[in-house]
Write a structure and sequence with these properties.
624 residues, alpha+beta, two-stranded antiparallel sheet, 19 strands
């Protein structure tokens, strides 16, 4: 059995020989593209020390290069959660079949790896037959033997896989080269997660009214933190429900909050310089790199390891931590992590015996934040993703430096200067510049959903964190990991404007939340549009409307047509109508509504002027 597993891993990594695998304890591999395979290279010269980064970097070039390596390779150990807890590769979607799909490419690249289903499975109303090709949206570079952003590791007697930043924030072009920073807009996160055997561990990302509604056997109980007995939900009923909810997510989107609402957001680009605040609701605003590092931490702790939320489950989710952890682990894919309520043990006591990173909640490589156990504007779960041997925040800061060095690749569009100039004139005349002005085409502000007119579900997603909140405090930037007994801490001073903007971004008080004004850099590469990705139009303006007419028909949204739907009122109404016709899309809070700032006949502009504006927006960064 061990020999066959090792052979499969050898096929995946290709370039690593069997001899090397047998000579080391825990071999691992993640693809880092060589310079000749990258279309848009990083520019470390724009990373400034002790200015807008707000952190000491001994050498900006070193920081960018470390960040690049981490961007492609660093999982913070999330392969344990995805493989051993959620069971991503235990059912229909398997590592051997991923290997088979890559080998079928014969060295050619793809932006959408198609993997054979290992067994028949039913998810909601959809049945995937054994042998059917699953469109994953995973990108494989030409000559590579692993998808971009996927790390394979041989650990504890089995092959595991985790993901890094690059799986969402890089893609492969038609020639098989890697484009850094572009959102992986066809990544099928919802479907692949739903194919896991314990997708129920993602239950907080659904429109769940009450976990108690899934209780069928009142004898399957755990002892709560208060010494009471409370039943766990039925395994099969919960799994079926969560699968049905998660699979609703459109391609290229992910639900990044734990608020008991199904509200996926479009994967953003990673061209972060000048695009603060960070996160669709603008929750990343303070700390290193104006909040980028905090946003990265949110993704690699809360979003990659549901076990890490155990500490905040009661104050934020109103679920006792024993019930929460027991629910996550009762059907864990790896028996080592599977909790049995018949044992009589508390789930926390059971988990302490198998925890790969003891001393802190979660299976990822995490440390308590300076505000732990409380949440702060720096971390939505009170923890930091940090690996032993680094300093606290060092890895996130390096990735921030790398992302700040990226720039959108030049488009292939050939637009005359006179057309671009006309487009810019329309941009100013139409009032777009009032919010999207300046060097980075954003005013860096937050806007209430009431003003912008979009669905407010995601804007309010961090509201309940207010119940367990503290002042933002950071460790000194020289603090090593593991942490010393009494690490030096620094309180972050905030201006009154920052406090007001942060309350908006976190939906605290009576603000109702907000959405950021995004930079318009790289629009050619980031269709569809708005936070929910609902403004989507394919190549055919008549039939490829909304998410149902694009992603659900395996049509890639067209940037030009989708931008037209953003500014043309008649076309937008058709897009919204199509989104609302589909119950799954509608119930995932994907509508394409809002941002009703029209450049059309209702505001005195003709079709030629619309196209000039679109030409300008799609190519505005080509000459920068």
């Amino acid at each position: 059995m061990r020999k066959s597993i090792i052979i499969v891993l050898v096929l995946i990594v290709g370039v690593i020989g069997a001899t090397l695998f047998l000579s080391i304890t825990e071999p691992e591999f993640a693809y880092v593209p060589p310079d000749e395979k990258i279309k848009n290279h990083e520019n470390s010269g724009i990373v400034k020390i002790n200015q807008e980064t707000n952190v000491q970097l001994e050498n900006s070039e070193d920081a960018v290069q470390l960040g690049k390596k981490l961007f492609y390779q660093e999982t913070f150990g999330n392969e344990v959660f995805f493989t051993d807890v959620l069971g991503l590769f235990n059912g229909t979607f398997t590592i051997p079949n991923i290997t088979k799909a890559i080998l079928k490419l014969k060295g050619n690249g793809t932006h959408n790896l198609k993997v054979e289903a290992a067994k028949t499975v039913k998810i909601g109303n959809r049945t995937i037959e054994k042998g059917e090709l699953i469109e994953t949206g995973l990108d494989v570079a030409k000559g590579a033997y692993a998808p971009v952003g996927v790390k394979f590791k041989y650990d504890d007697g089995r092959i595991k896989a985790g993901i890094s930043c690059a799986v969402c924030h890089a893609t492969v072009d038609k020639e098989g080269n890697v484009v850094q920073g572009i959102p992986n807009s066809d990544l099928n996160i919802g479907l692949t997660l739903a194919l896991g055997t314990n997708t129920a561990s993602y239950f907080t990302h659904t429109e769940m009214e009450n976990l108690k509604n899934f209780i069928k056997d009142t004898k399957r109980v755990v002892t709560t933190s208060e010494g009471k007995s409370e039943a766990l939900p039925d395994i099969e009923a919960l799994e079926e429900y969560v699968d049905r909810e998660i699979v609703k997510w459109p391609k290229g989107s992910n639900d990044t909050t734990i608020d008991f609402h199904n509200n996926p957001v479009q994967i953003p680009d990673a061209y972060t310089k000048g695009d603060h605040p960070y996160g669709w609701s603008g929750q990343g605003q303070i700390g290193p790199f104006k909040g980028i590092s905090a946003a990265i931490n949110n993704a690699h702790s809360q979003n990659m390891d549901a076990v890490s939320q155990t500490n905040i489950s009661k104050p934020v989710l109103n679920i006792d931590k024993e019930v929460y952890l027991g629910t996550l682990l009762q059907n864990a894919a790896n028996k080592k992590f599977r909790y049995d309520p018949k044992s009589g043990e508390k789930p926390t006591d059971f988990f302490a015996k198998v925890d790969p990173t003891p001393g802190v909640d979660g299976v990822n490589e995490l440390i308590p934040s300076a505000s732990f156990p409380k949440i702060s504007f720096l971390t939505s779960i009170g923890l930091l993703s940090s690996s032993p041997g680094y300093r606290a925040w060092e890895q996130m800061n390096a990735v921030s430096a790398f992302m700040n060095s990226l720039h959108p690749m030049k488009t292939s569009l050939e637009i005359q200067k006179s057309q671009k100039d006309e487009g810019r004139r329309i941009f100013e005349q139409g009032g777009c510049i009032s919010c999207h002005g300046g060097q980075y085409l954003t005013n860096n502000k937050l806007i209430s959903p009431k003003v912008i007119g979009t669905n407010d579900s995601r804007a309010k997603a961090f509201k309940k964190t207010e119940n367990y909140f503290d002042e933002p405090v950071m460790y000194d930037d020289q603090t090593p990991v593991p942490l010393p007994k009494n690490p030096i801490k620094h309180r972050i001073q905030m201006t009154k404007e920052q406090e007001e903007q942060l309350k908006l971004g976190w939906a605290h008080g009576d603000t109702g939340g907000a959405y950021k004004t995004p930079s318009l850099y790289g629009l050619y590469w980031s269709a569809p549009y708005l936070h929910d990705g609902g403004v989507a139009v394919g190549p055919n303006l008549l039939t490829d409307l909304g998410v149902p007419g694009t992603y659900l028909k395996n049509n890639v949204p067209d940037s030009r047509n989708s931008l037209l739907a953003l500014i043309d009122s008649k076309l937008r109404m058709k897009v919204i109508a199509e989104n609302k016709k589909n119950e799954a899309v509608k119930s995932a809070n994907v509508t394409g509504e809002g941002h009703e700032f029209w450049i059309d006949e209702t505001t005195g502009f003709n079709q030629q002027q619309q196209q000039a504006l679109i030409d300008y927006l799609l190519t505005v960064t080509d000459e920068k």
